[in-house]
Amino acid sequence: MTAAFDLLLVGAGHAHLGVLRLWAGGQRPRGRIALICPEPYVWYSGMLPGLLAGRYSAGQCRIPLQPLCAAAGIEWVAAAVTALEADTRTLQLSSGEALHGRWLSLNPGSLPSAPAQEGAGMELLPVKPFPAFIARWQDWQRPPEPLAILGGGAAGVELALAMARQVPSLALISAAPLLSGHPPALRQRALRHLQAAGVQVHERCAVERIRGDVLMAAGQPVWQGQRLVLATGASPLPWLRESGLACDGKGFVTIAPTLQSLSHPQIFAAGDCASLADTPRNGVYAVRQGPVLAGNLAHALNGEALAAYQPQRHALALLADGQGGALLSWAGLTAEGTVLGRWKDWLDRRFMRRHAAPER
Ligand SMILES: Cc1cc2nc3c(=O)[nH]c(=O)nc-3n(C[C@H](O)[C@H](O)[C@H](O)COP(=O)(O)OP(=O)(O)OC[C@H]3O[C@@H](n4cnc5c(N)ncnc54)[C@H](O)[C@@H]3O)c2cc1C
């Protein structure tokens, strides 16, 4: 028996958090609506480096989902989607249940990719999903061992700066120059901080396979050890690629500015899982999609015209430096310092306050 809903939200990503926040504030459309998400908490990626560096407690970095869903007046289904049939809008869940939605909205994020692995000499720890990552990182503290991080984007750099002082040695390995989507001055600033933290940085080093306990790039060994964190940027979730939804060459769901799938307009997609021109995959853009998505889901349920999401031209990036400060990149400008760290802390805490369920 397939349970039927007017709208099913898949994943508690940044855009869906914005939707729930607005609905909790009184803008919920009518109909039977549920959110499907396996975890009882949403971990906020902006504060994850601070959690790892010991600057925040776990409770400060996660949003309890059940109270937020209750405040928004929707059901929470505690399961993961394992398959989607786009033509019938039917979702298979890890619980064995199947759910059907008249409308669907997808915001389940992405996963880091891993190089091919020969043998079991190295343990790979993807940075997402966050709950599994945090739990295993705690195990890795007892006792700490040499560590490598694969991925030289903002996440890899922040993780390296947060973890460097907690392990005997740390290598940061990047296929491109570090922070390649940002101004070159940000890379210089990050390199100075990484050097001060004792991180060995390998740039332009595309690891193509893991042979036993050795990382291989261009046929040469580049690092030997038993623990590897994967912060390799977004790769698509396999079940989305196999759903029948139109996808780009990498397997991300192609969407129109209304955030509807190009092939299946009754399915919306936002955040990392979606592919839209001029829209990088990071939390800033996913957050900004939230209000447009909330409006369009209500319009769709009411049979009204939809609005277009317009990606902003510049996004503020504030990277935690692992010592309470932050590095800033915005519109080609860069800066750093403890004042920026305090500002980042204020912005992050405000995000958490905004998404906490209102007191009843
Ligand atoms: C260490 C780190 C730091 C970062 N810092 C920043 C930053 O400071 N600023 C910034 O802009 N970006 C940052 N990012 C990037 C940012 O995390 C993502 O781009 C952002 O989270 C957008 O993701 P999303 O909204 O698509 O989904 P996510 O936030 O990844 O959420 C996905 C949700 O879907 C759920 N889910 C996953 N699979 C399923 C399934 N099969 N069924 C049901 N639910 C599912 C998950 O449990 C989760 O609740 C950082 C990333 C990392 C790794």
UniProtKB/TrEMBL annotation:
<protein>
    <submittedName>
        <fullName>Pyridine nucleotide-disulfide oxidoreductase family protein</fullName>
    </submittedName>
</protein>
<feature type="domain" description="FAD/NAD(P)-binding">
    <location>
        <begin position="6"/>
        <end position="290"/>
    </location>
</feature>
<keyword id="KW-0274">FAD</keyword>
<dbReference type="InterPro" id="IPR023753">
    <property type="entry name" value="FAD/NAD-binding_dom"/>
</dbReference>
<keyword id="KW-0285">Flavoprotein</keyword>
<dbReference type="Pfam" id="PF07992">
    <property type="entry name" value="Pyr_redox_2"/>
</dbReference>
<dbReference type="GO" id="GO:0019646">
    <property type="term" value="P:aerobic electron transport chain"/>
</dbReference>
<dbReference type="GO" id="GO:0003955">
    <property type="term" value="F:NAD(P)H dehydrogenase (quinone) activity"/>
</dbReference>
<dbReference type="InterPro" id="IPR017584">
    <property type="entry name" value="Pyridine_nucleo_diS_OxRdtase_N"/>
</dbReference>
<dbReference type="InterPro" id="IPR036188">
    <property type="entry name" value="FAD/NAD-bd_sf"/>
</dbReference>
<dbReference type="InterPro" id="IPR051169">
    <property type="entry name" value="NADH-Q_oxidoreductase"/>
</dbReference>
<keyword id="KW-0560">Oxidoreductase</keyword>
